[in-house]
Design goal:
This protein has helices at residues 2-21, 63-68, 139-142; strands at 27-34, 38-42, 49-59, 76-88, 98-107, 110-118, 128-130, 132-133, 146-155, 162-176. The protein is an alpha+beta fold.
């Protein structure tokens, strides 16, 4: 009788173990999504003015990266700015005279959200400037068909037209649901 109970217990334990192991688990993913650098020319800005240096619209193109993980847009649970860098391409020009920068993201039906800022901008002859992250959750923007990134700033001196580019990357996280 003891052998039957002992054997029944083993069979029951194995059945439970196989049942729980046969279910797939949710699979997390985590990667950097980098937008292609955007080049633009900021126009002449007179001294003491708040201006938009760039307002660029990006069409969503993250699906290919998601497909590498077997994921889709609905699996994305978080998008946060990883880095935003503004570079001067015009020879001999610097960020001296720009007092501060702010960058915003916006899309139809979503509130404008601050991405990053630099205040004050160091007046040390820089031609490349990394903005400080505002750590906003941006997941709704990646699910929109397109979004716009604006770069705004205040300058204390006249600024000539300047060739620049902006480089942006985001940290993407999500979970691929288990197959049942």
């Amino acid at each position: 009788m003891k052998k039957i109970i002992h054997l029944s217990s083993i069979v029951l334990l194995l059945a439970v173990a196989f049942t729980f192991n046969s279910c797939d688990k949710d699979t997390p993913f985590d990667f950097t999504y980098t937008l292609a650098p955007i080049e633009f020319t900021s126009p002449f800005f007179p001294a003491n003015s708040l201006k938009t240096f760039s307002d660029t619209t990006f069409t969503r193109d993250i699906e290919a990266q998601l497909n590498q993980y077997g994921a889709s847009l609905q699996d994305v649970s978080s998008m946060q700015l990883k880095a935003i860098t503004v570079n001067i391409l015009s020879s001999g020009q610097t960020f001296d005279g720009v007092d501060y920068f702010e960058s915003y993201i916006n899309s139809t039906g979503l509130p404008e959200t601050k991405l990053a800022y630099k205040s004050p901008v160091p007046q040390t002859g820089l031609t490349s400037l990394s903005l400080d992250n505002n750590y906003s959750e941006l997941v709704d923007f990646i699910k929109a068909d397109s979004f716009r990134v604006d770069l705004r700033g205040y300058n204390s001196v006249d600024l000539p037209p300047t060739d620049m580019n902006i480089q942006i990357s985001f940290h993407i996280k999500g979970m691929i649901p288990a197959k049942k």
